[in-house]
Design brief:
Order of helices and strands: HHHHHHHHH
Number of domains: 1
Largest sheet: none
Radius of gyration: 16 Å
Number of strands: 0
Shape: globular
Strand content: under 5%
Distance between the termini: 20 Å
Number of helices: 9
Length: 218
């Protein structure tokens, strides 16, 4: 796992975005997010070394004390076991960043639910995970399962690209970038796109995933 290493050496703008995010998190009292941002800033600025990537799952399993809604934990753990590149901790960190675990969250571009699926993307990954007869992005079980399926699809494509030399970077990070900006942006950049908001998204989630899997970071 390479953490947020790909951010290092790409100019100061991503670092500024992370610092602004840290100040905002502190003001809002979001301690866990603030801790993750401090780690991301340290990695981005080269203050601590990034870990070498090996294509493994970022973050690992959920720690016993991870601040995840109890009703969501089994769905996150199942979704995080669908492929080797994606872990429960990474999905939990992504859900935290996407919606703060709010199943009623709605984005300005039409994103909906805890995993913030776009209306155009949801039909491709929808699943009635809890068997209630309806597949809805506003149903956490359905949305989290679909998130895992979509992320594994993106990670598989990223892994294939890395193995063939067409892409460079950690497959889990490239999957996150694809979830945020579209995989076409990853392919065009041949790796992590130089989009400040996407780099911020990847850096925060990758750092936050460690706090969900390692009790010492909680």
């Amino acid at each position: 796992m390479s953490g947020v290493g790909p951010l290092a050496g790409h100019g100061g703008w991503p670092l500024v975005v992370l610092v602004v995010g840290l100040v905002t998190a502190i003001r809002l009292g979001r301690r866990l997010v603030a801790v993750a941002l401090i780690g991301a800033i340290a990695l981005t600025g080269g203050l601590i070394p990034a870990l070498a990537g090996d294509g493994g799952a970022a973050g690992g399993p959920l720690a016993a004390g991870a601040p995840v809604p109890a009703a969501y934990r089994p769905w996150i753990e199942r979704a995080g076991a669908l492929c080797p590149q994606i872990s429960p901790a990474l999905l939990a960190a992504q859900l935290s960043q996407e919606s703060g675990f709010n199943p009623a969250a709605r984005g300005r571009a039409g994103e909906r639910g805890v995993a913030q699926f776009m209306p155009s993307t949801w039909p491709s990954w929808q699943v009635d995970a809890d068997g209630n007869g309806t597949a809805s992005p506003l149903d956490p079980a359905d949305a989290i399962t679909a998130q895992g399926r979509f992320m594994c699809h993106l990670a598989g494509a990223a892994q294939a690209g890395v193995n063939s030399g067409q892409l460079h970077g950690d497959p889990a990070e490239l999957a996150l970038a694809g979830y945020n900006a579209g995989f076409g942006a990853v392919q065009s950049a041949r790796g992590l796109p130089s989009i400040p908001s996407t780099r911020h998204y990847v850096a925060v989630i990758t750092a936050l995933a460690r706090t969900y899997s390692d009790p010492s970071h909680l």
